[in-house]
Amino acid sequence: MGEKQHIMIVEDSEITLYKLKAILIRLGYAVTAYDRPGTALEWLKEKNEIPDLIISDVVMPGMDGFAFIKQIRSDEKTKQIPVILLTSQTDLKDKVAGLEAGADDYLSKTVSPTELELRVKALLTRSQSENISLSQSASKTFTVFSLRGGVGTTSIAVNLSIAISQLLGIETCLWDMALSSSQCALMLNLKPKNTPVSLAEWPETAIEESLLRTMILDHETGIKLLPAPQFFEEADLINKQIIDLVWPPLQMIAPYIIVDAGNHFTDPVISILERSDAILLLLAPELASVNAAYQAVRIFEEMGFDRKKILPVVNEIFPRSSLTTEKIAEGLKMEIFAIIPFDTINFVRAINQGIPYLMLAPKSSVSTSISKMAYKLTAARKED
Ligand SMILES: Nc1ncnc2c1ncn2[C@@H]1O[C@H](COP(=O)(O)OP(=O)(O)O)[C@@H](O)[C@H]1O
Ligand SMILES: [Mg+2]
Q: Closest ligand 1 atom to the C-alpha of 263?
């Protein structure tokens, strides 16, 4: 995204804060400052973004620097952020306590601008190389599916990809497999050139990552789109063999893959559902849709899918519903993973302007629910 790297400073002494801020801003970093750990933690909880680095004082009102770091380390969302502790004197006892709490480095409050620059750069490079190794391991795949059309499968897949990308500050790949009504490119205002249909009748059993990259389109939000074939007649050409060709190199493109699997049980879709880490089963709060979801769960179980990876998501595509979430959960005999509220105005605007919903109305309750879902998915699934 080419943005400035973001450093958060937590420091109650105005003089130290002023000095650090001046140096870091001159070095080209974006800086946010807090005089209390409590307010810094609130910011970290609420925002979709996390800073690249935190510099924190030890002695502060309300909570000391050690307790502050412990809180950061205990939250899945913030635990990876490198932290530098500021000490007034080089007290060994403080250093040990800080390291035990999870600090990455120490700096004296009297640090010189040059030393500050070196230490900050060293920590930022270290945490970036850790991010790169993340993208080289196998990706997580979340597939959005429904047996019924028009319940928001594409809307959720597109905006969930953006939400994950923003939350973790990484690239995500959106794979359009809703072949009979592919609309991801339209929602993102991107024009596909090459698509996986060019792999039909491929004579070999593997393709190069560079070939797959010729099909991928970059969007300004940090997501990458692997588009569906442009013509409806080409949909049938995307078979399971193509999925097998695409799957291995796709893992190299982004650490998270979100699939819009549309609303048909075709062989290629089933082979993606089988390999997915989670299936977001989308439904609207009305009987026909709940029944379709029930049927889908039954088929997933017959196919031997782990029930834990099926996550029902209720999307309120109309203003009022007689079906409560409790009733839906009861009917499905499953817990509802997320609820997306109703908002036609911005969905229609988003489509008409070719701007993703999450960009157009980032503060709406729909965007908040999608971001929460992104958080729940990535936090819960890092463990296994
Ligand atoms: N939460 C919502 N509130 C209001 N309208 C929605 C919501 N989610 C989706 N829509 C609208 O419902 C329609 C179908 O959405 P779409 O994502 O194309 O569904 P699908 O891919 O399942 O066919 C679109 O016009 C979309 O703007
Ligand atoms: Mg769709």
A: 22
